[in-house]
Amino acid sequence: MRLRLVFTGLLLFMVFGLQAQPDKPPLDGKMLKEIKSQRIAFISTRLELTTEEAQAFWPIYNDYVAKKEKVMKRRLKEVFDEGGKDLNRMSEEAASKLIDDMISDQTKMATLEKDFVAQLRKIISAKKIMMLYAAEHDFKREIFKTMRDRPKDRGDRGPEH
Predict the structure, then answer these.
(1) Between these two residues, 36 and 77, which has the higher pLDDT value?
(2) Does residue 157 belong to any structural domain of this protein?
(3) Per residue, what are the HEC states of 42-111?
(4) Are 102 and 42 in contact (CB under 8 A)?
(5) Is residue 156 domain-resident?
(6) 73, 74, 109, 140: most buried, per Cβ within 10 A?
(7) Which domain holds residue 33?
(8) What Cα–Cα distance (Å) separates residue 110 from each residue in 5, 59, 115, 161?
(9) Does some domain include residue 36?
(10) 46/38 Cα distance (integer angstroms)
């Protein structure tokens, strides 16, 4: 569970962090939409959901992802706003508040996960839930690899032959 939160955080950090890298093109809305589409296709292929399962699964999954992203975006904003400052100059009060907020967000994420799994158990097997975790992990790994290996600018397609 904790590892999953770290991966999710890293993925969001990577997506938003890469937008600020001057030597690589920013991730625009079109690219983010494409990543979401690829995620849906990847998960659909891996889980082999029946029509009935898919109709029940995707609204629950999309709601879960939206709620999770909302918590993570707020967390990243706060970390960058507060954590980006010189920690040696941060007041004890500000550091304490940041720690409390981080713990609160971790609790929210755990509650979201617990509720999500409870909803999924009503529509798909435990085995398919585990397959979902594996598919999400594998998809994130593929995205990391793709983002790492992408050309510095969109006109650079690699060495010419």
Answers:
(1) 36
(2) no
(3) HHHHHHCCCHHHHHHHHHHHHHHHHHHHHHHHHHHHHHHHHHCCCCCCCCHHHHHHHHHHHHHHHHHHHH
(4) no
(5) no
(6) 109
(7) 2-149
(8) 9, 20, 9, 51
(9) yes
(10) 12
3-state secondary structure of 113: helix
The 10s digit of each residue's pLDDT in 37-95 is: 999 999 999 999 999 999 999 999 999 999 999 999 888 887 777 656 677 778 889 88
Tally of domains in the chain: 1
Contact status, residue 132 vs residue 47, Cβ threshold 8 Å:
yes
Distance separating alpha carbons of residues 62 and 39, to the nearest angstrom: 11
φ/ψ bin of 158: left (φ > 0), alpha (ψ from -120 to 50), beta (otherwise): left
Helix, coil or strand: residue 39: helix
Q: Is 120 within the bounds of a domain?
A: yes
Which amino acid, residue 44? S
